[in-house]
Amino acid sequence: MANKEQKIVKKFESITKAAVPKPKIAKNCVLAFLVGGAICTIAQIFQFILVKYGSPEEEARGVVSIIMILLGALLTGVGIYDKIAAFGGAGTVVPITGFSNAIVSPAMEFKKEGFVFGVASKMFTIAGPVLVYGIGSSVIVGIIYFLIQRFMG
Questions:
Q1: Domain count, the chain
Q2: Strand, coil or helix: 13
Q3: 6 in a structural domain
Q4: H/E stretch holding 98
């Protein structure tokens, strides 16, 4: 009986493999590059404008980050960011707008459960691990840098 089941499973796997569309890796990479580059270009334009109108460059960087987070949240809230992400793929994940989207999307999805048990508890379900591992790895790199500077520098 096991032999018959194995044949059925193999046949199913071959049918499934034939039916799954092949990813267009080159096209996806180009679209990700273009969309991610467009997002970064928009941020750079905001920085040029802020510096042109008298904002110090260090301050402008912080303000641009805030503007891009706000834009990412707004575009997620009105459903546009998801369409951009469907087109640009990973190009929308890497910039700071992707982080904003990762916070806002779960919060919107669980808002019907209330502000405490819905929005507040679910908004970091996607971004939480990124924060934990990002902060953790930066601490480890900082310790290694400190030790190298202390004992070799």
A1: 1
A2: helix
A3: no
A4: helix 96-109
Name the residue among 63, 122, 72, 129 with its Cα closest to residue 101.
72
Rounded CA separation 122/24 (Å): 33
| Distance from the first to the final alpha carbon of the chain | 69
Residue span of the structural domain in which 109 resides: 26-124
Tokens for 123, please give them. Answer: 């908004």
> Directed axis angle between helix 96-109 and helix 80-88, to 10°?
130
CA–CA dist 141, 146 (Å, integer): 9
Q: Is the pLDDT of residue 1 over 60?
A: no
Residue 135 domain-assigned (yes or no): no
In a domain, 76, yes or no: yes
pLDDT of 14-69, one tens digit each?
A: 888 888 888 889 999 999 999 999 999 999 999 999 999 999 999 999 999 999 99
pTM: 0.67
Does 10 fall in a domain?
A: no
